[in-house]
Amino acid sequence: MRRSLLAIPETFPIAGTFTISRGAKTKAEVVTCTIGASGVVGRGECVPYARYGESVEGVLASIEAMRGAIEDGVGREDLLDLMPAGAARNAVDCALWDLEAKLSGVPTWQVLGSAAPHKLVTAYTLSLGEPEAMERQAAREAWRPLLKIKVGTPDDAARLRAVRAGAPQSAIIVDANEGWRPENLARHFALCAETRVALVEQPLPAGDDAALRGHARPVPVCADESVHRTEDVAGLADRYDAINIKLDKAGGLTEALALRAAARAHGLKVMVGCMVGTSLGMAPAVLLAQDADFVDLDGPLLLAEDRVPGLHYDGSDVYPPEAALWG
């Protein structure tokens, strides 16, 4: 069955400015991959991430290099050998999942052999800012059950205490974005315990996280930048309590499912996260996150404009995708 392929860049404005320790952004730059066959099309979206050496142009070139194989009918499992983990493979892989669902009339969750998907509670991310500004953000969002805050600066203590003061009842995930160091780890962990943090995400740089091995961890610690592929998991089980699975890191739903199984096999908790993208990028992750311990799929909530149709959000609840969107 001959296929068609189209990959295009798209831009969606962020509501305000989204800031982490690595910088700020005002728009989400995504690549949308469309694969067609027999009069129907499947779609996938990815977010190229500079931290991993990716760019919109590079992702488009990587997908274009696969044109012949994709149009000739390459399968999802074949992609694991033909393309490296990352954003480009994610867009292609998710488009193939969607195309399969459209061609067969069978939703992806049934293909996976799972129960019908249900709504999930997602974290809502507060942008990095001065402590007073973050306290105001937290107070505005204090009705949400789960907040995620970006830290990774010299005055994280002030920021953490400010957010806890602003949202005294919310559970909090702290994302240090590799911004802490082994010498201040104990102090930061004590601070997280004091402020009742539920999870600390990637406290140390990915190449310098061996210091976590054997270190007392009063709160669970989650790997993000340190984990991309299934084979990464075994080497992380002695220093982390959880892994954050993102489709753009894993290179699609196919690898992400294997990552999830590997995490469970090693006794690790699972977080399903995202880059700042649209509902099309979140949709397959909603299925992946059905049994996750932590869900962070708030990308569309951070945008000033999302796709239509998009995922349905009701406060912090995110509902499974409709077929018109994906899967």
Strands, helices and their partners?
Blueprint: E1 4-20, E2 23-37, E3 40-46, H1 56-65, H2 67-71, H3 76-82, H4 87-104, H5 108-111, E4 120-121, E5 124-126, H6 131-140, E6 146-150, H7 156-166, E7 171-175, H8 185-194, E8 199-201, E9 221-223, E10 242-245, H9 247-250, H10 253-265, E11 269-272, H11 279-288, E12 294-295, E13 313-314, E14 317-318
Parallel strand pairs: 5-6, 6-7, 7-8, 8-9, 9-10, 10-11, 11-12
Antiparallel strand pairs: 1-2, 2-3, 4-14, 13-14
Helix pairs in contact: 1-4, 6-7
Could you characterize the architecture of this molecule?
The model has no long low-confidence stretch (mean pLDDT 95). The chain has 327 residues and is an alpha/beta fold. It has 11 helices and 14 strands. Helix 1 crosses helix 4 (87-104) and helix 6 (131-140) packs parallel to helix 7. A hairpin with a 2-residue loop joins strand 1 and strand 2. The two termini are 20 Å apart. It folds into 2 domains: 4-105, Enolase-like, N-terminal domain (Enolase-like, domain 1, 2-Layer Sandwich); 120-318, TIM Barrel (Alpha-Beta Barrel), CATH 3.20.20. The longest helix has 18 residues, at 87-104. The strands form 3 sheets. Strands 5-6-7-8-9-10-11-12 form an 8-stranded parallel sheet. A 3-stranded antiparallel sheet has the order 1-2-3.
Question: Could you give a quick summary of the protein structure above?
Answer:
With 327 residues, the protein is α/β, with parallel strands linked by helices. Helix content is 31%, strand content 23%.
